[in-house]
Design a protein that fits this description.
Elements lengths: L7 H6 L2 H21 L4 H26 L8 H4 L1 H24 L8 H10 L10 H25 L4 H24 L4 H44 L5 H28 L1
């Protein structure tokens, strides 16, 4: 029932519906995860949010695959709706999850794995190491995630949504760290949130934008390829779909290289 709240046709008419529904689904996913499986709430909340969005993205990929190649020869113009959907979907998740993280400590268990990830990486909100060795570590790790996004999208259609939701939750916890720092310095919770969201996102935007954009592009490439294989049976305009997918995947890797360089040296 919930997945019927958001349909591709609705998103096409009012793209901001994606942002609002992402907030609603995030709250539902976290609340149910904490209530049903409190010990595994981190992974279960991500899974629930993914499940609610899967039908929407699967249908959206099918619509994108059907688009007339003669109408938009430019592949970026042809798929601009899907890029916009990814951006608003991702921002909606970050806004909602960071809000829950800061204002509702009773659901903090839904972010345990994300907090552990930061501890395992030895990262803090103050910055990152800047050596050439880190560049290759960042490049290798992010390329692995990129390939995972592409493979999951190709095999399961919208399967990469899980990875995108997980990354959004990681960023949301980082933003929560920033907001809590403001609160510790005596700023009210409300003002800390208003200040902390742009400050937190801004502090990682330089490398975060190309990195997340790369995952969006890889998800699009895999999703389109998956639908193309199923619908075209390696015939029709499958060759054009395949070429688009390779172009997008190559572009995604270029963005990953750029993000790794910025993260290591900027």
């Amino acid at each position: 029932m919930l997945e019927s709240l958001l349909r591709p046709k609705m998103a096409e008419k009012n793209i901001w519906d994606v942002f609002l529904i992402a907030i609603v689904f995030s709250v539902i996913g976290v609340v149910f995860a904490v209530q049903i499986f409190p010990a595994q709430a981190s992974v279960f909340s991500v899974s629930l949010i993914t499940m609610m969005f899967l039908p929407f993205f699967q249908k959206l990929f099918e619509i994108e695959e059907k688009k007339d190649y003669k109408l938009h020869k430019n592949i970026f113009l042809r798929h601009r709706l899907l890029f916009s959907v990814f951006v608003l979907f991702f921002l909606g998740l970050i806004i909602a999850l960071s809000f829950l993280y800061v204002f509702f400590p009773q659901v903090r268990g839904a972010f345990g794995m994300q907090e552990d990830w930061y501890r395992s990486q030895g990262r803090t909100i103050t910055g990152y190491a800047t050596t050439s060795e880190d560049f290759y570590v960042f490049l290798a790790n992010n390329t692995q995630v990129l390939l995972m996004v592409f493979i999951l999208s190709t095999i399961f259609g919208a399967g990469a949504v899980f990875i995108l939701v997980w990354n959004a939750s990681i960023i949301a916890v980082y933003v929560g760290f920033v907001i809590n720092n403001f609160i510790k310095n005596g700023i009210s919770h409300e003002l800390a949130y208003v200040l902390g969201v742009p400050v937190g996102l801004g502090s990682i935007a330089l490398h975060g934008i190309p990195e997340i954009a790369a995952y969006f592009v890889a998800a699009l490439a895999g999703g389109m390829l998956s639908v193309g294989i199923m619908r075209e049976k390696l015939k029709g305009h499958f060759e054009k779909i395949f070429i688009d997918a390779i172009i997008f995947l190559a572009l995604a890797e270029v963005l990953i290289i750029l993000a790794a360089f910025i993260e290591a040296y900027a």
